[in-house]
Amino acid sequence: MKKTAIILGASGLTGGLLLGQLIKDERYDSIKLFSRSKLEGLPSKVTQFIGDLLELEQFKSDFTGDQVFCCIGTTKSKTPNKDLYKKIDYGIPVSAAKLAKTNGIETFLVISALGADAKSSVFYNKTKGEMQRDVLKQGIKKTFIFQPSLIGGDRKENRTLEDIGKAVFKVIQPLFFGKLKKYKITDPKNMAQAMINLANSKSHAEVIITSNDIKRITKNN
Hints:
alpha/beta, seven-stranded parallel sheet
């Protein structure tokens, strides 16, 4: 039976790559995008629902399918206001998980971050940790939380500090082995493929997936 996938964050780097892979994947005959603005040039198997994702409940009747891929995320430079930042990075994924649970969707995948910890004194890590905690509270049968290190690839928007960080990491990451492997730059294509692989796996033993596991899961087609 063909599947229906829901994507939040398809306009971003990883979300866009995920969308491209799902379009080519014959296991899916329907893809639903929930976003603030319309993407052009997409095939008929893609349906777009445009609106304010901070009010995700408005899409309740349309938020139906087999799998939810949540690739939502912002940055301090794009969203300096901490209240708004939390509404995006915490509020949208948790609201999506609640809708998935209500509508009987049994597979939920979300991108978090390495170092996420609800008890952290660092706002970014704390926000991601609280998001993870409250997504898991929904009790969705197959829940997978990805904790990448820096995500590689070229983004549409300018992220100067992040680009500098990537350049430094590329130089020093050959030194990362053993427990340090999880700090290597994460390839967004691998991330997207790993999400699809886990969404369609029979096992749901892995809940938290760190950077060093993403490449391994990518190969498990």
